[in-house]
Structure to design on (377 residues):
């Protein structure tokens, strides 16, 4: 394909996205960006129907799903499998690695997609869901390029909506932390949630609020400080865009290498994002959970992240193939199947189990499980 043809196609994609955005985006939240979140004061649903909270504990279990908000049959099949595993093994909450509402996010806190693609599929799971934003949550194009980052604000708005369907949706800010259990001055677990899309958008956002100087670096400084100050026994980080992945998007620093000729953002390769993740989390958090690729992976630790474990859970509503199974060494990886992760944390050990869900029958099965001692002090 010649350069003129490529330029034409690229401009066609960009101009089409802009037209879609003008017609589809609405609401009132684009005037401000809620940067920093605080633990939600809303009463949590009881874990596993026990009627007990999780204020004081030295043991937790939770599920990790991602790329789930399709509203289609696959999302419901995964939800039913999650219900079965929760009934069998217990869980206190659910982590969601982004792309909560396909394909273009929501246009307000009153958007019916919250019902169709979150509340209804998970209505039988009486647990809090802690979510981060994905590229489709901030998009106004079918490509999910994420160049309209203010749309993610509506998902924060839903967290505070008084008449919402349930109080499960937990997203107090675009990026935030949350404590679980333990003592006030030393939580059993602290979760650090990154807003990765403005850091890796395919197309440059016209709103300067979401530039690296105004959004990326402030988020990085804030996150670094929060991790340094944390006295939590366990520390987990969650983001949408992978740090490492054998799926189609690849590794941060070289994201979407085959498609970048279409993109206008110089940060679409994820190099600055890679440095962000390393500075904030290397040898400081026990596990980094991400999504974006619609596969399941537990990558082996790499020198650039020290002892921090790296897990991709992005098959909660869509499936895909692994692009390069040998790009990064893995403990486990699974393609062409829905799935989710179940995690158990105790004082000195962590158990991680990968469940697969058959796309046709909906039957679920344990694909891989491993228990290891705590590696980061």
């Amino acid at each position: 394909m010649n350069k003129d043809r490529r330029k034409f196609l690229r401009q066609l994609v960009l101009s089409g996205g802009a037209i879609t955005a003008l017609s589809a985006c609405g609401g009132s939240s684009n005037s401000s960006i809620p940067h920093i979140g605080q633990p939600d004061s809303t009463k949590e649903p009881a874990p596993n129907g026990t009627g007990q909270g999780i204020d004081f504990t030295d043991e937790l279990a939770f599920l990790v799903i991602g790329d789930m908000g399709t509203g289609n049959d696959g999302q419901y099949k995964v939800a039913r499998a999650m219900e079965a595993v929760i009934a069998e093994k217990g869980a206190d909450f659910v982590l969601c690695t982004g792309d909560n509402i396909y394909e273009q996010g929501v246009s307000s806190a009153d958007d019916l997609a919250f019902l169709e693609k979150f509340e209804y599929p998970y209505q039988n799971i009486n647990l809090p869901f802690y979510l981060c934003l994905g590229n489709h949550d901030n998009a106004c194009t079918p490509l999910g390029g994420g160049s309209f980052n203010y749309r993610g604000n509506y998902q924060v708005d839903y967290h505070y909506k008084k008449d919402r369907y349930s109080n499960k949706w937990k997203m107090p800010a675009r990026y935030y932390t949350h404590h679980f259990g333990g003592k006030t001055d030393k939580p059993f677990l602290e979760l650090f949630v990154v807003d990765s899309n403005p850091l890796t958008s395919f197309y440059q956002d016209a709103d300067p609020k979401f530039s690296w100087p105004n959004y990326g670096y402030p988020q990085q400084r804030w996150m670094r400080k929060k991790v340094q100050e944390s006295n939590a026994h366990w520390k987990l980080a969650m983001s949408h865009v992978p740090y490492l992945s054998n799926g189609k998007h690849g590794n941060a620093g070289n994201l979407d290498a085959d498609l970048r000729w279409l993109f206008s953002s110089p940060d679409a390769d994820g190099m600055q994002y890679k440095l962000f993740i390393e500075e904030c989390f290397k040898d400081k958090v026990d596990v980094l959970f991400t999504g974006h690729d619609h596969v399941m992976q537990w990558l082996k630790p790499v020198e650039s992240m020290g002892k921090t474990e790296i897990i991709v859970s992005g098959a909660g509503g869509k499936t895909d193939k692994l692009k390069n199974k040998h790009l990064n060494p893995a403990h486990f990886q699974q393609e062409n199947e829905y799935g989710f992760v179940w995690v158990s944390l105790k004082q000195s050990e962590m158990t991680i189990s990968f469940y697969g869900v058959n796309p046709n029958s909906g039957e679920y099965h344990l694909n891989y499980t491993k228990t290891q001692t705590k590696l980061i002090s």
